[in-house]
Amino acid sequence: MARRPYDMLFKLLLIGDSGVGKTCILYRFSDDAFNTTFISTIGIDFKIKTIELKGKKIKLQIWDTAGQERFHTITTSYYRGAMGIMLVYDITNAKSFDNIAKWLRNIDEHASEDVVKMILGNKCDMSDRRVVSRERGEKIAQDHGIRFHETSAKLNVHVDTAFYDLAEAILAKMPDSTEEQSRDTVNPVQPQRTGGSGGCC
Amino acid sequence: MTTKYMERLAKIEEVLLIANKKIDLNELRAGCSYGVPESLRPLAWRLLLHYLPLERHDWQKFLAEQRKNYDDMIEQIIVEPGTASMAINSVQEEEDHDHPLSDHPTSDWSAFFQDNKVLSQIDKDVRRLYPEIQFFQLLSKFPHPHGMKYPLSRRVINHQELTSQEFGANRDGIVGCVKTKVAKSQDENQAPNSEFHWHFSLLTALLNSNFQIVERILFIYAKLNPGVQYVQGMNELVAPIYYVFANDSDEEWAAYAEADTFFCFQQLMSEVKDNFIKTLDDSICGIESSMSAFHNMISSFDSELHKHLTSTLEIKPQFYAFRWLSLLLSQEFPLPDVITLWDALFSDPQRFALLQYVCLAMMELQRESLLQGDFPFCVRLLQNYPDTDVAKIVAFAQDIRDGKATRPVPKEASKGSKIARHARQLSDTLRNLSIIKK
């Protein structure tokens, strides 16, 4: 058939407190660069990157959100369509870690049930200012059955790994050949969820 | 072009003539609506934002009073609490009554920490102002004589150290540098650099950089308006005003840039603050209704574009218009362009009706690209609007508003594009099918 620029489209979302480095993580991943002087994200921003995974071309559509509470009404409307959510905190900022629980509740309330979640402890290059130990990060992720990575957008530590890992988890969840009912996340023609989707498969 | 400019300059100068006892605001608006010459802008903005009274002979007294008011606010809001916070040792003596860990609601410390929560958010954002220009990192020529002794960014630092280093910004602020200095043996390569940074930051923390002045303005506003406090993005609304006032060639006025910016910002906020209040989002004055009004405007002016964006691509106004409207386009263009754009916005007698037309003009100028683009292309275009002559956007916006612009003709008749669109839809459907089958 005609050329197809990609095989699959995954919608990802970056959330977390303001100033934890969401935009820097995304910029590192999409442009492989680091910049400390980003303006603050207002509302929602957007980047695209196509990756290859298991022989498939996967287009990642990544939404970057504003961290401040005020923007939650604006940003939570994107949770629904997201197939993967990265929840970012800053290892040098205890408050941003404490808020993980709040962000997880947000996900439960607004995202679809089968969304793949991941927690990222960013700024792991700043070990002299670390206030959240790696173990605490791992523990909270484990308690919620979520993937976890410590990243540094600045030194490019585990940023790619995190995105590939998330994409892989989403891919693994995809119905392989099952003739399943259309999945609302990939089929814009059918935006409504089918009733009683809670207990399927 | 130059003659037009000269005419405009002459017109504005005529309105602002010293001989005119009272400024004719309508004339001033008419003169400024296509842009204000740099030398007259600081005065024109003070008038257009309803800060300066129109009676010229009131100015001197009024300004003296307002600037004194601002000094008093600094004294009450920053210097007095600042004195307490910076003299931690002397506070120790009063430990019986109040102490940093007290959670008593009337505790001065508790209020202090509450303030610092707001402050640390402001601090993160003001450091990120217009990174492409140096101005906000430079030292202010006229720092506030009292305020400068209590730089707010230092309070954020005190807070950090008192509450087990709770501070989120990855910045080269004084905190990071002091710590880097202590820990420099861990990273020999960075040590000399850190040393330099440490001295540099210490210096800038004690003197006042322009971003710290914006910080002070925002903090005082947040304290005086507890219902609004500080919302990310307000920094972007203060910055252009402060930039214009601080670069006034008349140094007598430039010296009061901080106080006057505060009051002008307050005036501006009185008109746009609803955009920042979450509880008003769904009300008639909130940002959601501004966004839907904007999309309705696109729909009635250019139904084809509206249909393409909303029905075909499902692009919501939240993706781009939220930022455009709530920040008065301040994040979409380089600062000099934002300033020219604001000349027009501030001159709008029905503030901020013109803003919506400016946004519509921006859409129309990119119409062809938008109609041909797919979802990612269009979102990216709208979130990173290409460099454009803003004067052209403003002129077009005014034409649309005044009914002088011709509506675009839907291309339904054009066979070629119709076939192309069908082909695109078909390929989209096929792609979706192939995704589902995988």
TrEMBL record, chain A:
Superkingdom field: Eukaryota
Entry keyword annotation includes Signal: no
Matching Pfam families: Ras
Keyword Nucleotide-binding: yes
Chief location: membrane
Keywords per UniProt: GTP-binding, Lipoprotein, Membrane, Nucleotide-binding, Prenylation
Localisation per UniProt entry: Endomembrane system
Polar residues bias spans: 184-194
GO MF terms, alphabetically ordered: GTP binding; GTPase activity
PANTHER family in the record: LD44762P (PTHR47980)
Protein name: Uncharacterized protein
Organism: Caenorhabditis brenneri (Nematode worm)
Automatic annotation (TrEMBL), chain B:
Subcellular location: Cytoplasm; Membrane
Keywords: Cytoplasm, GTPase activation, Membrane
UniProt cross-references to Gene3D superfamilies, sorted A to Z: putative rabgap domain of human tbc1 domain family member 14 like domains (1.10.8.270), Ypt/Rab-GAP domain of gyp1p, domain 1 (1.10.10.750), Ypt/Rab-GAP domain of gyp1p, domain 3 (1.10.472.80)
Single Gene Ontology MF annotation: GTPase activator activity
One GO location term (cellular component): membrane
Keyword Ligase among record annotations: no
SUPFAM superfamilies documented for this protein: Ypt/Rab-GAP domain of gyp1p
Any one GO BP annotation for this protein: intracellular protein transport
Subunit field text: Interacts with RAB1A and RAB10; in a GTP-dependent manner.
Function, in words: Acts as a GTPase-activating protein for RAB35. Together with RAB35 may be involved in regulation of insulin-induced glucose transporter SLC2A4/GLUT4 translocation to the plasma membrane in adipocytes.
Name the record gives this protein: TBC1 domain family member 13
